[in-house]
Amino acid sequence: MLQKWIYHQTYPFAWIRLDHSDNELVSFIPHLRACMGSTGLFPTALPLQDECPTWEDCLTATLNAAIDVPQDFFLILDDFHNITSPDIHRALGWMLDYIPEQMHLLITSRQPFPLPVPRLRMRRQVLEIVLG
Q1: CA distance 57 to 47
Q2: Which residues of 33-65 are buried (b: 16+ CB within 10 A; e: fewer)?
Q3: What is the pLDDT of residues 9-44, one digit of tens each?
Q4: Which of 43, 47, 71, 130 is deepest in the core (most CB within 10 A)?
């Protein structure tokens, strides 16, 4: 259903289909950054992974580059139920606090995930679609 919807949108998107091999922070963040960088949307080049001493530095550089993207775009994290790493959950929760306005995160999962959804719901920054 998401695939049908996204292909009818006019906004560009980066799509990551997650599996168990993405369940480590050291592989998840480079995968995320490579996918976003491959869209060709970023006028500012993403720094190399070696230039980021911590995950916060990597995500900060990525979000700073996303601020310069001149249009709305989607980042799709598909099959997020495969991610059980508390470090990735923490990093993604942190990212949600600083996500630029034009960047829209779509997450698909077959089970609830430990992200700050209630807080985002209170701020009216989340739309949840639950299928039966």
Answers
A1: 10
A2: bebbeeeebbeeebbeeeebeebeebbbbbbeb
A3: 888 888 999 999 999 988 898 888 888 888 888 766
A4: 47
Contact indicator for 75, 41 with CB cutoff of 8 Å: no
88's enclosing H/E stretch is helix 86-98
Per-residue pLDDT of 73-87, as tens digits, reads 989 999 999 999 999
pTM (two decimals): 0.84
**Strand pairing of 13-17 and 73-78?**
parallel
Look up tokens 């006028």; give the residue. 43
CA pseudo-torsion sign 88, 17, 32, 6: negative
Residue whose tokens read 């949108």: 9
Average pLDDT of the chain to the nearest whole number: 84
Strand runs labelled E in 1-132:
13-17, 73-78, 103-107
Query: Domains of the chain, with CATH numbers?
Result: 2-122 (3.40.50.300)
Question: Which residues, 6 or more positions from 125, have their beta carbon under 8 angstroms from its beta carbon?
Answer: none
